[in-house]
Amino acid sequence: MATKQMMVPATWGIRSSFHSLIALLVAFLVIASIYVTHNSGVLVEDRTSKSKSSGDFQSRCNLFSGKWVFDNKSYPLYKEKECTFMSDQLACEKFGRKDLNYQNWRWQPHQCDLPRFNATVLLERLRNKRLMFVGDSLNRGQWVSMVCLVDSVIPPGLQSMHQHRNGSLHVFKAIEYNATIEFYWAPLLVESNSDDPVYHRVDDRTVRVQGIEKHARHWTDADILVFNTYLWWRRAQMTVLWGSFERPDGIYKRVEMPRVYEMALKTWSDWLEIKIHVCFRAVEWGGDGGQNCYNETEPIFKEGYRGEASCPEIMRVVEKTLDDLRTRGLNVQMINITQLSDYRKEGHPSIYRKQWEPLKEEQVSKPSSYADCIHWCLPGVPDEFEMQNLALNLLLDACRNHVRKYVRVEGGEVGMYVLIVDFEHKNFKFTGFSCLSRRFHIYVHEEDPSNQGPNHQQHATTVTYVKPNLGTHSNFAPVLLDRFSRCNSTSEYSGKRIRWGDSKVERGRRKSLESCDVFAGKWVFDSESYPLYNESDCPYMSDQLACHKHGRSDLGYQHWRWQPHDCNLKSVVGCALKHENEDPRVLDLLIACSLLIRWNVTEMWEKLRGKRLMFVGDSLNRGQWISMVCLLQSVIPADKRSMSPNAPLTIFRAEEYNATIEFLWAPLLVDSNSDDPVNHRLDERIMRPDSVLKHSSKWEHADILVFNSYLWWRQGPVKLLWSAEENGACEELDGLGAMELAMGAWADWVASKVDPQKKRVFFATMSPTHLWSREWEPGSNGNCYGEKMPIDWEGYWGSGSDMPTMRMVEKVLGRLGSKVSVLNITQLSEYRKDGHPSIYRKFWETLSPEQLSNPKSYSDCIHWCLPGVPDVWNELLFHLL
């Protein structure tokens, strides 16, 4: 038989110095959102016979305009001493408070009545579900209130309380209902050095603003989530960590608090945007000017009373966060329920609570100096949930309409309503109401006809083929992967294959109109024509690629020109000179003319007029995109060009030409948990091998597409999460095998969607690395560090170019025929061991003394300096265009 376990008192306490906060309406929003997920059952006990639709109430009743009414018949909703799990921090009566009227106040809207809370109905709605509060001690008070509200209707032997993760997670379980009401300690929501539920009072509070996964993995599977955060941000400055608490190479920086708060909420809102569709509501409250709550025994009766304004910087941060969520497509609604909580100055514990530290003589002589005017007595204000019941119905219609579009699958309703988010600060609390749904993908089980041959009968095996997801069916949309996604289990690769292709695809490569192979040639030093631009003249240069800026003094790498063996690259503007003989002087003059005017920026813009040129892939393709922008931006007046902020899709726009040069971060081409352009360094790489839907929705309308993918497949095994898999069961496959599946899904999009007469598609072959100098200089033990000249060894291949991968890519591209052109950059780039940043770039993590003493240990031999090799890739692209 389950037994009750009391909370460890030490886990309750933080003390703080700002005036009244309230954890008032969130819990009832939780309750109401649970109620409305079911169509049957009695919701509440009505005090009035009047029954109105939510629309009627919305039009004639403002639930948040009203007054507090003394009601000692209906309130409190439970007795303090009867709640087994009451916190000593909130038990005001136990610690000497004699005036108990604070327990008897009910909120009464001016124009309507509200129904009464029913604990049994709530538990029915919680059956088989997890309700979790996430945040600080204020949200913990909300959780205690919720537990006390339902505690009385559950027999002692059918309830339990447990702690997990050293007290970070508290779980109250109603055994009969298989339901839990949980609290998870995460006072800053993101990772910090204050995450210990007991020992969290630190002088230097450090926040890892981009890290939320440590906490999120504990709350992701909850059915109903209530968040809060603000109290712990009340400092002028905080230390921000870029890196990991477990590693010594993190970067620490002191930052003004509002900016840190903004960065943390950005991380949290990214998680929110990725995981749910929400409607928001806001709660505001204030304190009483120069006084505090000590000795207050009644509410404020002056209607319209407002306390002191909150920190405007924080308000702007929160408002901006909500605005950003709106712009990212979240259905945001704001319901302001500020005023009602401002009235309840008497509802705080004041001096009537357990003090975790001995009081000083000066404090005892002046009770107001240690009065707790932050938390709330229980029973009391946090129990006043009923005012929100009808407000929830006002939000329901939009969510119901949203869900009905896709929740009916095979006759079963799979949509659900979930309360998802609440964060609070001095004057705002935001609570979200979410409509979630599952969507489905279809497996096609059949044999691949292409495997049938003369010996098919004797060697036939049944293989499961999966048709890639192109979003052509309404129920064909799996849950998107993101950096918070995790595998619930991992098994060996099952052998599923990608079925792709189009019977109309023309076999064979696009035929060249000329006999010259522009990818076979040599590098020629040309200090007159190259570089095609100066590093310092490009305002869009990346610090990762700006080698001269970061200390590289040998600039010879900028002066190499690619010269095909049997021809010259196309000149944008031809030279008018002609010759009838083989006079070397005339030939030299002709070639010099061609080289000096070969790259005509205006001509290139004319080719792009009215078009979208988009690069899609990883950081190497991003380098080629930056190269293209730097090559072309100089002729565009500053007020006629723009660059969008860094995002999955970043856009350079030339207004005069109505043209864009864009980059889409999609390192694996298919959907994955590494698709965040900033936070993509993950221990577990997960991808959907049968879906490019998330990315293709952004690239499908571009006129010229340049794809690449290679580097990210060389970092160990990859987890496969097929679109039809709903339980998080992954399979594991080596990088080459996983890349082949991804290439199949990408190729299916090309085969199905691309008309070569209207859209040009290029695929850039792998960009080689130069990690082992012994491959070009036997007996040496270095890498690209210190290299100043190309490899003068025609036909050289190093281990940085993987032959099996190249053969696989060639096979896939060969099946696509004229729908795709190959930008074959591999061999020519193999020669350029001198072209990498090496140590001459910005590094995002602090280098250790050991690294600094051994430069080759941290040399970047993967990316390319600019100006440099990627400029030639773009010359080749222009040649093919």
TrEMBL record:
Chief location of this protein within or outside the cell: membrane
Which cellular compartments is it found in? Membrane
Top-level lineage group: Eukaryota
Q: Name one GO cellular component term.
A: Golgi apparatus
Q: Which residues form the Trichome birefringence-like C-terminal domain?
A: 114-385, 598-879
Describe its membrane topology. Answer: Single-pass membrane protein
What is a GO molecular function of this protein?
O-acetyltransferase activity
One matching Pfam family is PC-Esterase
Keywords (alphabetical) are: Membrane, Signal-anchor, Transmembrane, Transmembrane helix
Q: Where is the Trichome birefringence-like N-terminal domain?
A: 60-113, 514-568
Family to which this protein belongs: Belongs to the PC-esterase family. TBL subfamily.
UniProt cross-references to PANTHER family, sorted A to Z? PROTEIN TRICHOME BIREFRINGENCE-LIKE 35, PROTEIN TRICHOME BIREFRINGENCE-LIKE 9-RELATED
Q: What is this protein called?
A: Trichome birefringence-like N-terminal domain-containing protein
